[in-house]
Amino acid sequence: MIPVIVVFAPTACGKTALAEDLFGKSSSFVFKGKAEVISADSQAVYKGLDIGTAKPTKEEQQEIPFHLIDVASPQEQFGLGKFLESADSLCAQIWRRKKIPLVIGGTGFYIRNFLLGSPSTPESRPEIREQIKQKLADLGKENLYAELKIVDPISAKKININDEYRICRALEIFYSCGKPLSSFSLPCELRKQYKFCTLILNRSREELYKRIDLRVEKMFEAGLAHEVEVLKKSGLTKDSPAMKAIGYSEFFIEGLSLEQIKEKIKFNSHRYAKKQYTFMRGIPEACIVDADDKEKIKQIISSFLSSVLL
């Protein structure tokens, strides 16, 4: 089994700083330099989205290696399937380098599925998959999504209209066995190929919202509005996959002033942070730790690494 440290926390909880403090070149931690980060952030994958995603700076990325940062075009849909495939491949590569994979991020949907895996569904039928791919090419994702809403409305609500992979997979399952994807239960046990140390960093809602609001203010000071204008001029629209993100989609709402956009981003970020915690409920063996309790965090990780690196 590959040992993996998984750290979940919503935006503005200090995840990047924690990774540096634990494993960065300048760290005083006994295991410094022993890990590489796999980002579990659904928007940091996109090139050009730097300020609004609070992407690790070049200096931070020199302190500790980061993966799944700037790996996709803003026009490209990078969904759960690509994340899981990439994360699994990276874990194996990092472990071969005698380092520990550190999966860290705030996209609870990604992390939950990485820990537990996807629902146990029927084996793929190549002929049906090819038919759906052809239908996608001929009719477009909008028509396939409309079809999914008819045959499996529960799954459709959970899938973004731009996530072509998951739309096709859900339709493939339905037409392979006549049962919707939503009828298959999610696994409740951790994946067997990994030995996990899972931390959920907790902050009070009041403190978390204050940190989010401060981060949004700093994003505007750093030039978020200009970054969005540059992205628009490059051809991105409100329908581009990357522009669906909080911090970017709000700029496409007509009639809002910059101040109103800023407040809208804060509001949406609060709601999103709350939603991400719900994704992480009931994860087996996860430790919920105060985000500021660095000694407790180091103690848990040190104990884990001592057991797997012996």
TrEMBL record:
<dbReference type="GO" id="GO:0005524">
    <property type="term" value="F:ATP binding"/>
</dbReference>
<keyword id="KW-0819">tRNA processing</keyword>
<dbReference type="GO" id="GO:0006400">
    <property type="term" value="P:tRNA modification"/>
</dbReference>
<protein>
    <recommendedName>
        <fullName>tRNA dimethylallyltransferase</fullName>
        <ecNumber>2.5.1.75</ecNumber>
    </recommendedName>
</protein>
<feature type="region of interest" description="Interaction with substrate tRNA">
    <location>
        <begin position="41"/>
        <end position="44"/>
    </location>
</feature>
<keyword id="KW-0067">ATP-binding</keyword>
<feature type="site" description="Interaction with substrate tRNA">
    <location>
        <position position="129"/>
    </location>
</feature>
<dbReference type="InterPro" id="IPR039657">
    <property type="entry name" value="Dimethylallyltransferase"/>
</dbReference>
<keyword id="KW-0547">Nucleotide-binding</keyword>
<dbReference type="GO" id="GO:0052381">
    <property type="term" value="F:tRNA dimethylallyltransferase activity"/>
</dbReference>
<comment type="similarity">
    <text>Belongs to the IPP transferase family.</text>
</comment>
<dbReference type="InterPro" id="IPR018022">
    <property type="entry name" value="IPT"/>
</dbReference>
<feature type="site" description="Interaction with substrate tRNA">
    <location>
        <position position="107"/>
    </location>
</feature>
<comment type="subunit">
    <text>Monomer.</text>
</comment>
<comment type="function">
    <text>Catalyzes the transfer of a dimethylallyl group onto the adenine at position 37 in tRNAs that read codons beginning with uridine, leading to the formation of N6-(dimethylallyl)adenosine (i(6)A).</text>
</comment>
<keyword id="KW-0808">Transferase</keyword>
<dbReference type="Pfam" id="PF01715">
    <property type="entry name" value="IPPT"/>
</dbReference>
<dbReference type="InterPro" id="IPR027417">
    <property type="entry name" value="P-loop_NTPase"/>
</dbReference>
<feature type="binding site">
    <location>
        <begin position="11"/>
        <end position="16"/>
    </location>
    <ligand>
        <name>substrate</name>
    </ligand>
</feature>
<feature type="binding site">
    <location>
        <begin position="9"/>
        <end position="16"/>
    </location>
    <ligand>
        <name>ATP</name>
    </ligand>
</feature>
<keyword id="KW-0460">Magnesium</keyword>
